[in-house]
Amino acid sequence: MEGRHEIIFDRLVYSCVFEKHRGYEEFYPEHFLGFQLSGETHAFYANGNIVIPENTVVLVRKNQLIRTIKYPSKSGKYQFISITLDKETLQKYALENKIVVKNSYEGKQKLFFEPDDFLHNYFISLAPYINKKKEATPRLANLKIREAIELLLQSNPDFKNILFDFSAPYKIDLEKFMNRNYMFNVPLESFAKLTGRSLSGFKRDFIKTFNISPKQWLREKRLEEAYYLVRYKQQKPSDFYMDLGFENLSHFYFSFKQKFGMTTSEVR
């Protein structure tokens, strides 16, 4: 049975699958609030990984690279609701409520928690839109976003340092960042934004740092890691090629032999 991935309104997305599903890498430029209705989500990012169990709320900070694996519950169904907390709405809310953030949030990335009654009932209230029993007008959609902001701040006032931090990304250590995120198969524009650079600035700084173009470096780095996994960890390419950013297995095999002059079977 095929899964469902529906945009209920422009900032509310409902995902439903009936068997284990590996998602692709995704770049999240905005904060989003999610609720695990059933099953669980395994999320992988630069600093590690987390498991989001059933009946759990997760607040994902903006400008993240994340890969997920979706696991249905014992009943055979996976359901997840995500609602985007967009910058424009957050700025209006901060202006109306005179909220000013002077210090950025310094806490860990692990921002999932059991919902209180208010947050739980909030997500339950979205059911009519998911079931198509009610249509969300633009005005109602905006009200639901603002309601989510109110409930988040009520559950943890410190979240204001995440939601209302509108400072522009600053330039970060390019070499350190790329060595931690090379396995994410996303456009160069996403890497540029995450490192606080324009695309042209990213390419220029990249060549200064690595003496090679970003695309060439990514290919070499991923293949070197693949060689290590095959030669020393005895892993099968079919088990890891997507985790290293390769889109298909045949392309991986071709690239591997082109670089090392032998097949993965000959390396073992």
TrEMBL record:
Keyword Cell wall biogenesis/degradation attached? no
Specify the protein name.
AraC-type DNA-binding protein
Keywords, A to Z, come to: DNA-binding, Transcription, Transcription regulation
Domain of life per record: Bacteria
What Pfam family is a match, any one? Answer: ExsA_N
Query: PROSITE patterns from the xrefs?
Result: HTH_ARAC_FAMILY_2
On whether Electron transport is a keyword of this UniProt record, the answer is: no
SMART domains (alphabetical): HTH_ARAC (SM00342)
Q: Which residues form the HTH araC/xylS-type domain?
A: 172-268
Q: Name one GO molecular function term.
A: sequence-specific DNA binding
User: Cross-referenced InterPro entries, in alphabetical order?
Assistant: AraC_XylS_family_regulators, ExsA-like_N, Homeodomain-like_sf, HTH_AraC
